[in-house]
Amino acid sequence: MTKKTIFSGMRPTGRLQLGNLLGALDNWVKLQDDYRCLFGVVDWHALTTAYEDPSQLQENTYQMVIDWLSAGLDPEKSIIFRQSDVKGHAELHLLLSMITPLSWLERVPTYKDQIQQLKEKNLGTYGFLGYPLLMAADILLYRAETVPVGEDQVPHLEITREIARRFNYLYQTDYFPEPETMLNEVKILPGIDGRKMSKSYGNTIDMSEAPDEVRKKVRQMVTDPGRIRKDDPGNPDVCTVYAFHSIFNAEELAEVERACRRGEIGCVQCKNRLADRLTAFLAPIYEKRQALEGQLDYIRDILQEGAKRASVIAEQTMDEVREIVNLKL
Ligand code: TRP
Q1: Whose CA is closest to 240, among 290, 191, 280, 202?
Q2: What is the C-alpha to C-alpha distance for residues 147 and 257, in angstroms, rounded to an integer?
Q3: DSSP reduced 3-state for 148
Q4: What CA–CA distance (Å, rounded) separates 246 from 244?
Q5: Which residue segments constitute the domains of the chain, with CATH numbers given?
Q6: How far is the CA of 41 from the centre of ligand 1 (A)?
Q7: What are the two backbone dihedrals, phi and then psi, of residue 295, each rounded to the nearest 5 degrees?
């Protein structure tokens, strides 16, 4: 029985947050046993928006792999590699660009949105328009059947399937499977100020944050603004601390809610309980990161080994693709 192939990737843009851990990484870790997994640090994708200042790319690549390993990705089980080390991504991207109508790329819903949202950058580039196509190349290069992603990537998977279909149709083949989307389970995790967690708001908690830092951030979390004294009855529905309890402290949740509504537990005490839970949850990850932090040679070895293994699959695909489009002598 051959395992199905999974491909997924993340852009190396900085330390991963708690949301990346819960939304994606934890899921990847679980998939490692049942699938042939490839996980790519998609640095070319990062460059589509960071091209003006790529100074952090290399450092971010190392740090992201450290986060991945700390969360439990295992280079013995999964192929962990950097996109730009496997040139097949670029070659397939180029070949697919021949058959992809511009209009398909222009109408990807996130395209105009992103250009608007990141106004300080000039994203009127060829590379940025081709972002979804590069992503399609990532996936099709390994003929992955399944792609675990968040909701925001659904349109990109849709266009990947359209491109696979178009390739198969044009060259009368069934070479590329149409990859299916495996939606990450969403857990709504607010930032410490209660707004959406986002680097631009400065309200994030990193997945590999030091325990003291985690405690500090929990202390800063906003609670029910209507609660002035500690024995005032509280409303957990509007409390950030409670939102975190509901994810990290399921066992005590009912008790926390009851005590809050009756004003029997003060916010300080409630935050201490959460901080205990959260730091315990993150402790193994933090410890693993501490052990890996100085070992950049080891990380580089993992990426080199991963690139070798990925290249074997990629080269075979490209060989067959070249044949299909008559580029072979
Ligand atoms: N665009 C994805 C994101 O921002 C990252 C990505 C690049 C990806 N290539 C991929 C995800 C291929 C899944 C499969 O999250």
Answers
A1: 191
A2: 37
A3: strand
A4: 5
A5: 5-189+296-324 (3.40.50.620), 209-290 (1.10.240.10)
A6: 9
A7: -95, 60
Q: Where are the beta strands (DSSP E) in the chain?
A: 5-10, 36-41, 79-82, 146-149, 180-183
Q: Catalytic one among 4, 77, 121, 230?
A: 121
Q: Is 139 in the pocket of ligand 1 (CB under 6 A)?
A: yes
Tell which one of 27, 28, 105, 135 to mutate to probe ligand 1, the residue whose CB is within 8 A of the most ligand atoms. 135
The tens digit of pLDDT for each residue in 161-205 reads: 999 999 999 999 999 999 999 999 878 899 999 999 988 899 999
Pocket test of ligand 1: the residue of 13, 27, 42 to mutate, having most ligand atoms within 8 Å of its CB, is 42
* Closest atom of ligand 1 relative to the 156 alpha carbon: 1
Apex 74 CA angle, 70 and 75, nearest 5: 120
Neighbours of 39 (CB within 10 A): 25
What confidence tens digit (pLDDT) does each residue in 55-107 have? 999 999 999 999 999 999 999 999 999 999 999 999 999 999 999 999 999 99
Give residue 135 CA to ligand 1 midpoint distance, Å: 6
Residue 121 a catalytic site member = yes
